[in-house]
Amino acid sequence: MISFKDAFYKAINELYPNGPEWDLVGIITKSSKVYTLSYDSKILSGIFEILTEPIIQKIADDNDLILRKGVQNQYPEFTLYDEAFSHEKIAVDMKSTYRQRNVGGDVKPFSFTLGSYRSYLQDPKGTKGILFPYSEYKEHWVIGFIYDRNPGCKNVEIKQILEALLLETPYSNLEYFVQEKHKIAGKVKGSGNTTNISSIKSKLIEDFVEGNGPFQTKEDFENYWRIFVK
Q1: Mind listing the pLDDT tens digit for each residue in 32-74?
Q2: What is each CA distance from 127 to 68, 133, 179, 226, in whole angstroms?
Q3: Nearest 5°: CA angle at 118, between 112 and 120?
Protein backbone atom coordinates (compact mmCIF):
# COMPACT_ATOMS: atom_id res chain seq x y z
CA MET A 1 0.00 0.00 0.00
CA ILE A 2 1.19 3.51 -0.76
CA SER A 3 2.18 6.02 1.90
CA PHE A 4 -0.70 8.45 1.46
CA LYS A 5 1.05 11.38 3.12
CA ASP A 6 4.17 10.96 0.99
CA ALA A 7 2.04 10.57 -2.14
CA PHE A 8 0.08 13.73 -1.26
CA TYR A 9 3.16 15.91 -0.89
CA LYS A 10 4.71 14.42 -4.02
CA ALA A 11 1.56 15.18 -6.01
CA ILE A 12 1.20 18.72 -4.67
CA ASN A 13 4.85 19.50 -5.44
CA GLU A 14 4.50 18.22 -9.00
CA LEU A 15 1.21 20.03 -9.63
CA TYR A 16 2.42 23.28 -8.04
CA PRO A 17 6.25 23.50 -8.30
CA ASN A 18 6.08 27.18 -7.29
CA GLY A 19 3.61 26.58 -4.47
CA PRO A 20 -0.14 25.89 -4.48
CA GLU A 21 -2.24 28.30 -6.55
CA TRP A 22 -5.15 28.49 -4.16
CA ASP A 23 -6.08 32.17 -4.34
CA LEU A 24 -9.60 31.64 -5.70
CA VAL A 25 -11.65 34.82 -5.99
CA GLY A 26 -14.87 33.76 -7.70
CA ILE A 27 -16.89 31.59 -10.05
CA ILE A 28 -16.95 32.54 -13.73
CA THR A 29 -19.95 32.23 -16.06
CA LYS A 30 -19.91 31.66 -19.83
CA SER A 31 -20.70 35.34 -20.29
CA SER A 32 -17.48 36.27 -18.43
CA LYS A 33 -19.17 37.45 -15.26
CA VAL A 34 -17.53 36.58 -11.95
CA TYR A 35 -19.56 35.75 -8.86
CA THR A 36 -17.28 36.62 -5.97
CA LEU A 37 -16.88 34.23 -3.03
CA SER A 38 -18.07 35.06 0.46
CA TYR A 39 -16.32 33.83 3.57
CA ASP A 40 -19.28 31.61 4.51
CA SER A 41 -17.76 28.45 5.99
CA LYS A 42 -20.06 26.14 4.00
CA ILE A 43 -19.01 27.76 0.74
CA LEU A 44 -15.32 27.61 1.64
CA SER A 45 -15.60 23.97 2.68
CA GLY A 46 -16.77 23.18 -0.86
CA ILE A 47 -13.99 25.33 -2.32
CA PHE A 48 -11.30 23.47 -0.38
CA GLU A 49 -12.73 20.17 -1.57
CA ILE A 50 -12.45 21.44 -5.16
CA LEU A 51 -8.84 22.47 -4.55
CA THR A 52 -8.04 19.07 -3.05
CA GLU A 53 -9.60 16.87 -5.74
CA PRO A 54 -6.92 17.30 -8.46
CA ILE A 55 -4.27 16.27 -5.93
CA ILE A 56 -6.21 13.13 -4.98
CA GLN A 57 -6.79 12.37 -8.65
CA LYS A 58 -3.06 12.64 -9.37
CA ILE A 59 -2.33 10.23 -6.51
CA ALA A 60 -4.78 7.78 -8.06
CA ASP A 61 -3.30 8.20 -11.55
CA ASP A 62 0.31 7.91 -10.40
CA ASN A 63 -0.34 4.75 -8.39
CA ASP A 64 -2.89 2.99 -10.62
CA LEU A 65 -5.61 3.35 -7.99
CA ILE A 66 -9.36 3.69 -8.39
CA LEU A 67 -10.81 6.96 -7.07
CA ARG A 68 -14.42 7.12 -5.92
CA LYS A 69 -16.18 10.18 -4.52
CA GLY A 70 -18.83 10.06 -1.85
CA VAL A 71 -22.14 11.85 -2.23
CA GLN A 72 -23.36 14.60 0.09
CA ASN A 73 -23.39 13.64 3.78
CA GLN A 74 -21.60 10.37 3.01
CA TYR A 75 -18.24 9.33 4.43
CA PRO A 76 -15.61 9.76 3.11
CA GLU A 77 -15.20 12.50 0.52
CA PHE A 78 -12.68 10.38 -1.39
CA THR A 79 -11.92 6.66 -1.50
CA LEU A 80 -8.75 5.26 -3.06
CA TYR A 81 -8.11 1.57 -3.66
CA ASP A 82 -6.38 -1.04 -5.76
CA GLU A 83 -8.99 -3.33 -7.30
CA ALA A 84 -6.80 -6.36 -6.48
CA PHE A 85 -6.80 -5.34 -2.79
CA SER A 86 -10.27 -3.83 -2.45
CA HIS A 87 -10.40 -4.70 1.27
CA GLU A 88 -7.53 -2.24 1.91
CA LYS A 89 -9.23 1.02 0.91
CA ILE A 90 -7.97 4.46 1.89
CA ALA A 91 -10.51 7.00 3.15
CA VAL A 92 -9.72 10.68 2.68
CA ASP A 93 -11.85 13.38 4.26
CA MET A 94 -11.45 17.13 3.91
CA LYS A 95 -12.03 19.41 6.93
CA SER A 96 -11.75 23.16 7.36
CA THR A 97 -12.27 25.84 9.96
CA TYR A 98 -11.37 29.48 10.48
CA ARG A 99 -9.31 31.10 13.20
CA GLN A 100 -11.14 32.98 15.91
CA ARG A 101 -9.34 35.46 18.12
CA ASN A 102 -9.93 36.86 21.58
CA VAL A 103 -10.03 40.56 22.41
CA GLY A 104 -6.25 40.69 22.63
CA GLY A 105 -5.86 39.22 19.15
CA ASP A 106 -4.57 35.81 20.21
CA VAL A 107 -5.86 32.80 18.29
CA LYS A 108 -8.37 30.70 20.20
CA PRO A 109 -7.98 26.89 20.23
CA PHE A 110 -9.61 25.35 17.16
CA SER A 111 -10.85 21.87 16.33
CA PHE A 112 -12.64 19.87 13.63
CA THR A 113 -15.49 17.36 13.58
CA LEU A 114 -14.42 13.95 12.35
CA GLY A 115 -17.62 12.13 11.46
CA SER A 116 -20.14 10.08 13.40
CA TYR A 117 -19.33 7.68 16.22
CA ARG A 118 -22.49 5.73 15.40
CA SER A 119 -23.72 4.21 12.09
CA TYR A 120 -20.73 2.79 10.18
CA LEU A 121 -18.32 2.93 13.14
CA GLN A 122 -20.62 0.77 15.28
CA ASP A 123 -21.65 -1.40 12.32
CA PRO A 124 -18.41 -1.98 10.35
CA LYS A 125 -20.07 -4.22 7.77
CA GLY A 126 -22.98 -1.87 7.12
CA THR A 127 -23.20 0.84 4.49
CA LYS A 128 -25.30 3.48 6.28
CA GLY A 129 -23.65 6.86 5.79
CA ILE A 130 -20.53 5.42 4.15
CA LEU A 131 -19.55 4.69 0.54
CA PHE A 132 -18.18 1.20 1.26
CA PRO A 133 -18.41 -0.88 4.45
CA TYR A 134 -16.12 0.53 7.13
CA SER A 135 -14.44 -2.87 7.47
CA GLU A 136 -13.02 -2.46 3.93
CA TYR A 137 -11.03 0.65 4.88
CA LYS A 138 -7.51 0.11 6.14
CA GLU A 139 -6.56 3.78 6.53
CA HIS A 140 -8.44 6.97 7.31
CA TRP A 141 -6.82 10.32 6.48
CA VAL A 142 -7.84 13.93 7.07
CA ILE A 143 -6.72 16.89 4.98
CA GLY A 144 -7.37 19.90 7.17
CA PHE A 145 -7.41 23.60 6.28
CA ILE A 146 -7.23 26.50 8.73
CA TYR A 147 -7.61 30.11 7.57
CA ASP A 148 -8.48 33.68 8.47
CA ARG A 149 -11.72 35.11 7.18
CA ASN A 150 -11.45 38.18 4.96
CA PRO A 151 -13.97 40.69 6.39
CA GLY A 152 -14.14 42.37 2.99
CA CYS A 153 -15.75 39.27 1.48
CA LYS A 154 -18.90 38.99 3.54
CA ASN A 155 -21.31 39.16 0.59
CA VAL A 156 -21.37 37.78 -2.96
CA GLU A 157 -21.07 40.32 -5.77
CA ILE A 158 -21.13 40.12 -9.56
CA LYS A 159 -18.04 41.48 -11.31
CA GLN A 160 -16.58 41.46 -14.82
CA ILE A 161 -13.76 39.08 -15.70
CA LEU A 162 -11.49 42.08 -16.35
CA GLU A 163 -11.72 42.90 -12.64
CA ALA A 164 -10.55 39.45 -11.49
CA LEU A 165 -7.02 40.60 -10.66
CA LEU A 166 -8.47 43.23 -8.33
CA LEU A 167 -10.70 40.82 -6.42
CA GLU A 168 -9.80 39.52 -2.98
CA THR A 169 -9.82 35.94 -1.78
CA PRO A 170 -12.33 35.30 1.04
CA TYR A 171 -9.57 33.71 3.13
CA SER A 172 -5.97 34.46 4.03
CA ASN A 173 -3.10 32.87 5.97
CA LEU A 174 -4.19 29.48 4.66
CA GLU A 175 -2.45 26.49 6.26
CA TYR A 176 -3.10 22.80 5.86
CA PHE A 177 -2.12 19.44 7.28
CA VAL A 178 -2.38 15.78 6.25
CA GLN A 179 -2.80 13.33 9.10
CA GLU A 180 -4.36 10.00 10.00
CA LYS A 181 -7.76 10.45 11.59
CA HIS A 182 -7.05 8.53 14.79
CA LYS A 183 -3.96 10.64 15.50
CA ILE A 184 -5.94 13.89 15.72
CA ALA A 185 -9.16 12.51 17.25
CA GLY A 186 -10.12 13.64 20.73
CA LYS A 187 -12.14 11.92 23.44
CA VAL A 188 -15.18 14.21 23.46
CA LYS A 189 -17.98 14.61 20.95
CA GLY A 190 -18.65 17.69 18.89
CA SER A 191 -20.73 20.49 20.36
CA GLY A 192 -24.50 20.40 20.63
CA ASN A 193 -26.69 17.35 20.17
CA THR A 194 -24.59 15.86 17.38
CA THR A 195 -23.09 12.39 17.38
CA ASN A 196 -19.89 13.66 15.80
CA ILE A 197 -16.40 12.93 17.04
CA SER A 198 -14.40 16.03 17.90
CA SER A 199 -10.74 16.33 17.08
CA ILE A 200 -8.16 17.52 19.54
CA LYS A 201 -8.30 21.26 20.24
CA SER A 202 -5.23 23.46 19.88
CA LYS A 203 -4.02 26.93 18.96
CA LEU A 204 -1.23 25.37 16.91
CA ILE A 205 -1.59 23.62 13.57
CA GLU A 206 1.61 21.76 14.47
CA ASP A 207 -0.38 19.57 16.87
CA PHE A 208 -2.42 18.37 13.89
CA VAL A 209 0.61 18.08 11.62
CA GLU A 210 2.36 15.90 14.19
CA GLY A 211 -0.77 14.01 15.25
CA ASN A 212 -0.57 14.80 18.97
CA GLY A 213 -3.87 13.14 19.90
CA PRO A 214 -4.53 10.70 22.77
CA PHE A 215 -4.91 7.57 20.62
CA GLN A 216 -1.78 5.59 19.78
CA THR A 217 -3.42 3.32 17.22
CA LYS A 218 -6.44 3.12 14.94
CA GLU A 219 -7.70 0.20 17.04
CA ASP A 220 -7.52 2.25 20.26
CA PHE A 221 -9.55 4.99 18.59
CA GLU A 222 -12.19 2.59 17.26
CA ASN A 223 -12.54 0.69 20.53
CA TYR A 224 -13.10 3.93 22.43
CA TRP A 225 -15.66 5.47 20.09
CA ARG A 226 -17.64 2.28 19.37
CA ILE A 227 -18.80 2.16 22.99
CA PHE A 228 -19.10 5.93 23.51
CA VAL A 229 -22.60 6.62 24.90
CA LYS A 230 -22.51 10.20 26.26
Answers
A1: 999 999 999 999 999 999 999 999 999 999 999 999 999 888 9
A2: 15, 5, 24, 16
A3: 100
Residue type, 197: I
Contact 208, 202 (CB under 8 A): yes
Average pLDDT of the chain?
93
What's residue 21's pLDDT?
87
Question: In angstroms, rounded to a whole number, what is the distance separating the alpha carbons of residues 23 and 110?
Answer: 23
Q: In 10 A of CB 20, how many CB atoms?
A: 13
- 154 membership: H or E segment, kind and range: none
Distance CA 74, CA 90 (A): 15
At 212, is the secondary structure helix, strand, or coil? coil
Residues 67-122 have pLDDT tens digits of 999 988 899 999 999 999 989 999 999 999 999 999 888 999 999 999 988 889 98
Reading across the β-sheet that carries 185-189, which strands appear in turn? 113-116, 196-199, 185-189
Strand pairing class (66-69; 137-149): unpaired
CA 61 to chain centre: 20
Identity of residue 160: Q
